[in-house]
Amino acid sequence: MEIIYLLIPIAIILVSVALWAFFWSVRQGQFDDLESPAHRILFEDDEQLIPDDARPAKDDKQDHKS
User: Fold this and answer.
1) What's the pTM?
2) Which of 39, 55, 58 is nearest to 47 (CA)?
3) Where do transmembrane segments lie in this chain (predicted)?
4) Phi, psi of 9 (to 5 degrees)
5) Half-sphere exposure (Cβ direction) of 30: Cα atoms closer than 13 Å
């Protein structure tokens, strides 16, 4: 039963540190844009990694939009 006198203050300290870290990260803008990093990988420039025979052929019709 005496251990509870130690565990409750430790739990309160841990919760307060977690809340401080959360609010600090919100103020620093860590949660401003959650979707762009996930979509960025789809649009990275990796043409040098695609083999020549697997690259799509470029048509002049697609390059010149009306």
Assistant:
1) 0.51
2) 55
3) 6-26
4) -65, -35
5) 8
Please report which helix (H) or strand (E) contains residue 11, including its range: helix 4-27
Helix (H, G, I), strand (E, B) or coil at 46: coil
SS3 44: coil
Task: Determine if residue 64 is left, alpha or beta; phi over 0 gives left, psi from -120 to 50 gives alpha, anything else beta.
Answer: beta
Q: Which two tokens stand for residue 22?
A: 């959360």
Convert the pLDDT of each residue in 2-38 to its tens digit.
999 999 999 999 999 999 999 999 999 888 877 777 7
Q: What is Dmax (Cα atoms) for the chain?
A: 80
